Sequence to fold (172 residues):
Amino acid sequence: MQEVYQKKNTTTIEYSIDFCADHAQSKIIRDFVGLIFDYYNINYPWRGRFILIADELINNAIEHWSIKGDIDSCIIRAGKSKDKEFFIEFEVHDTGKGKDAKDAEHMNEIKAEKMEEKNTENGVYMAKRWRWLFHITEKLVDTLSFFESPKGGLAVKIEKRIPPNDNTLASL
Fold:
């Protein structure tokens, strides 16, 4: 389902996609995110990096937070502001039935711990578990948030804003 609506100084598209908790579905969503970046003419490396991040969030929902056959969902909002800044929000909602399911409160505690565990001297996350999720947040997206999903599980949301003609990645 696609809905286009007007926000103050912004035209936004919003897509809501329900998908079976099966890895075959992740390619469809990955390709769809790529099409959104193509539509807004957002080049590499942002396009590729954001597809990787979206894929990681979808795969986490499938592998850890849902069981085979569950119906998870993702919500994608994207657009350009009046000053031509591109923005994208990507949410993944799972059922919370998986073997490693966590609630939002627990994930926010883990997030706080991991941010504190970062070795400020050399900028490396010392803990192994969850390090990828928090590393990509710090380096590639503006915000990462966890909240309870209406589906009964966890919802993960990332947001990114890209100024016009910014196709670089700072200090990866």
Observations:
- Residues 32 and 54 are 10 Å apart (CA to CA).
- The two ends are 35 Å apart (CA to CA).
